[in-house]
Amino acid sequence: MKTTTIFMKEFDGRRKYSKAVKYQKDGVDKFAYYPVQFRKGVELANKTKIIIKDRWEGAYEGKNGVVFYEFVNDFETVTDLPAGFEEVTDEDIPFC
């Protein structure tokens, strides 16, 4: 199964999610960001890695043309930490 990194930003108090799509232009790797939506109540941190189990694609007419997006119905969160380790946040570190 492929791991996908989900990026999160807040706009007007709402969380917006996206994933990066890699492409090449003039022999240089570039990235575009593709909107991702989840079921109501799902909240993910920025740069969360997931395995998508069920999804569908959709589109809507936006201000600048058609916007394509991915709706994730079912996923599994992936942790990259070795056994016996815990994730540390900035709040856990006294000098950050």
Q: What would the keywords be for this entry?
A:
96 residues, 5-stranded mixed β-barrel, single chain, mainly beta, 64% strand
How would you describe the overall organization of this protein?
By secondary structure, this protein is mostly beta strands. It has one domain (3-80). The protein has no helices and five strands. Strands 1-2-3-5-4 form a five-stranded mixed beta barrel. The mean pLDDT is 89.
Overall number of domains: 1
Total beta-strand segments:
5
Query: If you average the pLDDT, what whole number results?
Result: 89
Q: How far do the termini sit from each other?
A: 35 Å
Strand content: over 45%
Oligomerization category of the chains in this entry: single chain
Largest sheet: 5 strands, mixed, barrel
**From N to C, what is the helix and strand string?**
EEEEE
Total helices: the number is 0
| Structural class designation | mainly beta
The radius of gyration over CA amounts to: 16 Å
Strand order of the largest sheet: 1-2-3-5-4
Helix content: under 10%
Low-confidence stretches: none
